[in-house]
């Protein structure tokens, strides 16, 4: 399991949420509270949109809690749209290319969850990628594979939630074919730099935790509230996703795929 | 705090204690049980005596639990005398030179504890080092400073336990002068490659945990027993040290300095 | 390009060839003489056979010339059969999983060369791997893909040189289909822990340099002689491979595939 | 030896000088032209002034030429005042704390050169630091020691060039006392975030190369011109220093200490 946060709103220094708050993401890297493993020390990453067409990406292998580069970059960089992630590896190696977030063109993605029986379907998942995205793959995680499959659907014209639904449906079908009993869990954030989509899904109805806070000019989505006392946090319902655009508008909706997938 | 183990006996593969046992040191790096912090992810190190005059040293910055190099080296290397350590940093940076064990000539040392108010006395501690050992210092930890001060005493002819007593007495005096209230804690292992000394000391009578197991041809000393059910483990008494020579002879003795230091 | 060496003979400390000699592999990492790039600083690796069924592997990302762990491990470990490699990356990321040597079961492989137009045929190369080897892939290099394809042929019963011939033939055919003009170059070492095969091949007749030295109880194969004045080094002829067994017997033979591939 | 650059002027993306130009600093990390060693692969660092009181710092151990984080941060971060450095270590270990630039409060420093016989005078240099700066020391290099000594002089009220003169005079005196014959070389950049001072000094009149380019709204100082054909680059004379303020004003002046030190 992992912990992550996504911010969309008026530009703030990344450190506000990543390092400085009472239960910041860096604090969660050592003391996660709503997670099977309290320790998320297998690398970290931040991704942010600034003045460029593509997001900046800084991912490294040392635990977030002691990385002085992470702290300094987060102190200096201000962004109105950023992701941050601390990783607890589930089977794949610790390498920068396996750290979240993943970026491709303007898109960015991070994931907290897993594909049950991934080793049994990895090959068929990867085979479903179109050439360009196959070559864009840099690491070996299930998460990056899901991201690229979603982008393939988006490239065909699907709105992101439908692209996610179709990708998860396809993945679940591969798992069924391979006789996998373990669940598919997908608590994740996806953005094109303008609209943020966050999902809290699992075919066994036990998705990883996800919360959001909507305040004037600032929507934050996080695995765990970053300021413990804050009553402005709401849980994203299981089987739902939220959409954030232009700083404040947050829409919570049931995910089209959830019911069917659980049934399946 | 940190976790460590020392082995002296018939040569075994390092992995036996470092990676493979039920509560191996690698397991303790993520799930320490008798420690303020369960996570010891700020680097690790192994040091071992083989065919050379000086010990081998392999120290790195990533958490021990996911380091494939550590696992492979421990699978291949067999030694009758080795140290292993996983670190939870207490204020100094994560760098290889700050990872334990420390080695100098034939000597090796590792430490679980701390010098209270270290920043206030660091300069005077370092000033007490003779030139050659001042230059041998590679990192910035209190632990390495203590090691080199002990070696300075040994070089003057003191037996190791007396060298430790004198070093801790000197350090405690500096702390008193500086008005430091925090304790000096010293659970540590020291060896010249032939005799192993392990100490469990603290001026506030709350030293970090330390256990030993004496079996035919194998003495193991560890922060926590590495096989949980084993009733062959005994706690090293507070304020005591043990001496291990030629594979099996273990002597537990009260440490000469302890009483005086607590009084002081 | 990269530099490598392979040793087969009476057990020696790895440092003899890796660190200590006049033009050791570590020296070549900074001052390669027969290589397009003098600097081979994108990671390194050693692999050695000891008392275990599988080889030990130690690969890391920092330049070999300044890695104190590499130096210490090479000072301590003695082996009668080992590989060492320093990498100059050609397009793929610097990660441990992309460092040579690669190991699978008892087999080990390292490579100095490249597949021209790799991005255009990577997908079809990987698709040719049987399931078990597809899942064994840990990195993203062309070299690891070639290694696993060779192992697939060996698993079908081919002797290693034929497995290499068949793999290179297949690769060359994919390159032709994709309209790739760049060459396929394969200076490489392969072993099962008992017999060592080293190849110096390229479809444009410009394979990377390779030398061998046969002395009593010691055969060394290296990209560049490790002791500059030594007249005991012979170049492996272009389009040839050598076989080393039981310490001394070295056979140089033309590689069956070379002529055909150049023609094609 | 090392290579570095300093920029002061209208805000630009760091990549312009660090990664993108024909002979950018990243290019110089692998192909330095005016340097004893062409390879500067022992870590790198960037430091920049943005919206905060203190500079941002990002230093890491892998060679600059293959570090994807460096590239991404330099693509995103825009600054009107920044430093960048690639290191070729001269005896001290490769660690983040030994990478340039060094920062303390608002001050930043980087160095290309060395203190001859540093091991013989290190202790006395460090002993000259006032307490607060002694504790601020994070690494073990001669460069950081010089930086902190200069800051100690500045704290006493010296203008930076005089602080440098006094520090180098003191260092040279220690070298003389210790009977050191090797030279003291100091090609360096120092700034408080507003005024940039760059020095090209050596007691043997063989300081490392240093150039500057003054264009409207942009002064760049670099070990080697970053665009090879550019005739807007001038060498900083040996024994001189330059001062850059408010974007364009560059003053080249003889360094007060140079003559005396050479005489001594």
UniProtKB/TrEMBL annotation, chains A, B, C, D:
EC number annotated for this UniProt entry: 3.5.1.118
CDD domains: YafJ (cd01908)
GO molecular function, one term: hydrolase activity
Listed Gene3D superfamilies: Glutamine Phosphoribosylpyrophosphate, subunit 1, domain 1
Domain Glutamine amidotransferase type-2, residue spans: 2-247
Assigned keywords, A-Z: Glutamine amidotransferase, Hydrolase, Transferase
PANTHER family (UniProt xref): GLUTAMINE AMIDOTRANSFERASE DUG3-RELATED
Name of the protein described by the UniProt record: Glutamine amidotransferase
Lineage per the UniProt record: Bacteria, Pseudomonadati, Pseudomonadota, Alphaproteobacteria, Hyphomicrobiales
